[in-house]
Design brief:
The radius of gyration is 18 Å and the shape is globular. The chain contains 8 helices and 13 strands. The strands form 4 sheets. The protein has a 7-stranded mixed β-sheet, sandwiched between helices. It has a two-stranded antiparallel ribbon with strand order 6-9. It has a two-stranded antiparallel sheet with strand order 7-8. Helix 1 packs parallel to helix 5 and helix 7 packs across helix 8. The two termini are 34 Å apart. The chain has 275 residues and is an alpha/beta fold. It has a single domain, classed as Vaccinia Virus protein VP39 (Rossmann fold, 3-Layer(aba) Sandwich). The relative contact order is 0.16.
Length: 275
């Protein structure tokens, strides 16, 4: 693993600890354990687009500590497997599975190594929220996705739009873009000790690295890997306060302030592997 991914893993180890244990975390683990919800606990975009997972074998890549992995299994999936590169996240994922009495499998490992770590193919490969910006190689990512989707199976992806990554997420007011929209091999170095899920928490690890992947490159990578795109949808909402000046709406999602031009804040892709 490169020094950039190692630095990111260190930061995500800290984030996993705060996200899981902090009383102020938006992840609200104790309420999740008490409710033990299924896909109804997902955001409205996912609920609408994902459809029934009854009887499916599901692989959830970059699963963090597995709340959505558990939700998918509790909603009728035949099996659910989650992978994440953070050992702290996987430790908490396994504890959460026990606490919710859910039969799921969690695997620790680098996404690019997943074909060596996980056997078989899946009806659904699921990747959502805050994922590919941490990865340097989108073509390699797409090949991993295609490796695991069974013939006739589906890949579902939902994440922040790369347009969002063009802006300074801590700037208090609307401003011009500060980062390139288009991908560069060298990452953007981010120095930040704040925690996106808990405004009162701070991290010890300051630096992490992100890469921008334009929508066109993501779609092309998936097509080149052998998947057939069913749809590409863009939305003016995102599930967390990705920019400091975004506003929380009644549906629990964040939008740009009223009066600003509408910009894409997130997007989804559904793709299948031909039979």
């Amino acid at each position: 693993m490169s020094e950039h991914l190692e630095a990111n893993k260190q930061k995500w180890n800290e984030l996993a600890e705060v996200n899981f244990r902090s009383p102020g975390s938006d992840y609200d683990v104790q309420s999740f354990i008490a409710a033990a919800d299924g896909v109804e606990g997902l955001n409205k975009t996912e609920r609408k687009e994902l459809g029934s997972v009854e009887g499916l074998d599901i692989l959830h890549l970059q699963c963090h500590f597995g709340k959505d992995t558990i939700r998918l299994k509790r909603s009728g999936a035949r099996s659910a497997t989650g992978l994440d590169f953070s050992p702290v996240a996987i430790k908490h994922a396994r504890a959460l599975a026990v606490a919710t009495d859910t039969d799921v499998t969690f695997v620790e490992g680098n996404l690019y190594d997943a074909p060596k770590l996980i056997d078989g193919v899946f009806d659904l490969v699921y990747v959502t929220w805050g994922t590919i910006c941490w990865l340097p190689d989108i073509e390699g990512w797409a090949r991993v996705i295609a490796h695991f989707v069974k013939p006739g199976g589906r890949f579902y992806f939902l994440d922040q739009h790369p347009v969002v990554l063009s802006f300074d997420d801590h700037a208090p007011a609307p401003h011009e873009p500060v980062y390139d929209y288009f991908h560069k091999p060298d990452p953007i170095a981010i120095d930040d000790t704040s925690v996106y899920s808990d405004e009162n928490a701070t991290l010890k690890t300051m630096r992490s690295y992100e890469w921008t992947h334009p929508v066109g490159e993501v779609v092309t990578a998936l097509v080149d890997a052998g998947l057939r795109i069913e749809y590409l949808h863009e939305f003016d909402t995102v599930t967390w306060k990705a920019l400091a000046f975004m506003e929380l709406c009644d549906d629990g999602l964040y939008r740009l302030p009223e009066g600003m031009p509408r910009l894409p804040m997130s997007y989804s892709i559904s793709a299948r592997k031909p039979l």
